[in-house]
Write a structure and sequence with these properties.
CATH class: Alpha Beta
Largest sheet: 8 strands, parallel
Strand order of the largest sheet: 1-8-7-6-5-4-3-2
Number of helices: 9
Radius of gyration: 16 Å
CATH architecture: Alpha-Beta Barrel
Length: 220
């Protein structure tokens, strides 16, 4: 796990009528990853981006596509998102009948593996698999919609997870997503997160100055 803070802007907050140019702008503004939220209207109460959209965006940037699958049953879709251009594929343990099998399916596609924990999901859902994965995504809002308020109760979970990763001497990133702004990003970094996902703050603060907002999140 790197101590270097990475910023992964969520394109859920982008202007969908010009998604391609938004992605190019994020690269120019210094984003480390591009965070793509995939929702199926079943596992979470909203619908978003399918593999075809990712396929169209893929040639526009060399940035890591950080794809968060909020879909169930997740195994049926891993191949589609892998071939569309995902670099990291993150899933929820609650969206699969067999977490180990899902991890193996992602590895078979030569992609990095992430496991996501919803605000109420316990660490034990991921603890036994830490040796086999690259990233844990801690949700600091209930997944399904952008623009929600940060839930500070996830900070303890983040600290505990960081401690376990350190004790086991593993190279696992901790990513945090949900309501992250210029104030609370300091708290999540202190708690142990090294990848910050942000949508509304990056696209809407400072009159949408992407570079300024990305740099402020990295620095604060």
């Amino acid at each position: 796990m790197s101590n270097l803070i990475k910023i992964s802007p969520s394109i859920l907050s982008a202007d969908f009528s010009k998604l391609g140019s938004e992605v190019i702008s994020l690269e120019k503004a210094g984003a480390d990853y591009i965070h793509i939220d995939v929702m199926d209207g079943h596992f979470v109460p909203n619908l978003t981006i399918g593999p075809e959209v990712i396929k169209k965006l893929r040639p526009l940037t060399k940035k890591v596509f950080d794809v968060h699958l909020m879909i169930s049953p997740v195994d049926n879709f891993i191949k589609d998102y892998a071939s569309a251009g995902a670099d990291i594929i993150t899933f929820h343990p609650e969206a699969t009948q067999n977490t180990m099998k899902t991890i193996q399916l992602i590895k078979e596609e030569n992609k990095m593996v992430g496991v996501s924990l919803k605000p109420k999901s316990k660490i034990n859902l991921v603890e036994d698999y830490l040796e086999m994965i690259d990233l844990v995504l801690i949700m600091s809002v209930e997944p399904g919609f952008g623009g929600q308020k940060f839930m500070p109760e996830v900070l303890e979970k983040t600290k505990t997870l960081k401690k376990i990763i350190k004790e086991k001497n593993l190279n696992v990133d901790i990513e945090i997503d949900g309501g992250i702004n210029f104030d609370n990003c300091t708290l999540v970094k202190k708690a142990g997160a090294n990848i910050i996902v942000s949508g509304s703050t990056i696209f809407k603060e400072n009159n949408g100055d992407l570079k300024k907002n990305i740099e402020a999140l990295r620095r604060n």
